[in-house]
């Protein structure tokens, strides 16, 4: 339906007006919004590399005696999980290799799906330590975690990060057109 509005001579055309000046606050907001949109595309990669660095760091520490704050706890948990079939020193070495390998795979993106599988299996064992070693992980009445318990519980953030990484890895990419 045609508009009944008619412009009279001398009425300025809104399209002819110069754009309104943005305040410094609006300009900053526009720049931050633009940067946030650009970051959204690379955020899974940044998150993957950061998780990889943490895993590598904590894994490498386990190669050096007494360098890891959780060394004794990790060995006790691994001993419980394997029913004592794997000796302590081998358990620690296996954990060091596993965590370092997962970390390197996250950093490089090489064999990422296998690394994600290994990560979630590893986290299952880590969280089982809360049940297998209650005296080491909980203070009174099971509501207050010990330092070791806190060390385990903080991995909830790592699991959430890896769920995001997994979702990104499993999301099909649109085919790029070549013109």
If you had to describe this structure to a student in words, what would you say it looks like?
The chain has 179 residues and is mostly helical. It is 66% helix and 0% strand. It contains 7 helices and no strands. It has helices at residues 24-61, 71-81, 88-108, 112-132, 134-137, 147-153, 155-170. Helix 2 packs across helix 4 and helix 4 runs antiparallel to helix 7 (155-170). The radius of gyration is 27 Å and the shape is elongated. It starts with 23 loop residues before the first helix and ends in a 9-residue tail after the last helix. The mean pLDDT is 86.
Percentage of β-strand residues: under 5%
The helicity comes to 55-70%
- Report the average pLDDT across residues: 86
Main β-sheet: number of strands, strand sense, barrel status? none
Rg computed from alpha carbons, rounded to a whole number of angstroms = 27 Å
In total, how many beta strands?
0
Spans of at least 5 consecutive residues with low confidence: none
Dominant shape: elongated
Structural class: mainly alpha
> What's the end-to-end separation, in Å?
40 Å
What is the H/E order? HHHHHHH
Helix run count:
7
């Amino acid at each position: 339906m045609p508009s009944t509005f008619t412009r009279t001579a001398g009425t300025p055309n809104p399209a002819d007006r110069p754009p309104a000046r943005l305040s410094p606050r609006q300009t900053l907001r526009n720049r931050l919004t633009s940067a946030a949109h650009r970051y959204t595309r690379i955020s899974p990669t940044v998150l993957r590399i950061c998780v990889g660095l943490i895993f590598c760091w904590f894994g490498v520490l386990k190669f050096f005696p007494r360098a890891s704050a959780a060394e004794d706890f990790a060995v006790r948990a691994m001993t419980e999980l394997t029913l004592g079939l794997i000796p302590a020193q081998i358990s620690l070495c296996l954990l060091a290799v596993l965590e370092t390998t997962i970390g390197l795979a996250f950093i490089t993106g090489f064999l990422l799906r296998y690394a994600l599988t290994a990560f979630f299996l590893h986290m299952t064992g880590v969280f089982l330590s809360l049940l297998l070693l209650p005296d080491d992980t909980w203070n009174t009445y099971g509501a207050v975690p010990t330092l070791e318990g806190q060390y385990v519980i903080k991995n909830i953030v790592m699991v959430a990060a890896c769920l995001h990484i997994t979702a990104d890895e499993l999301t099909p990419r649109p085919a790029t057109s070549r013109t």
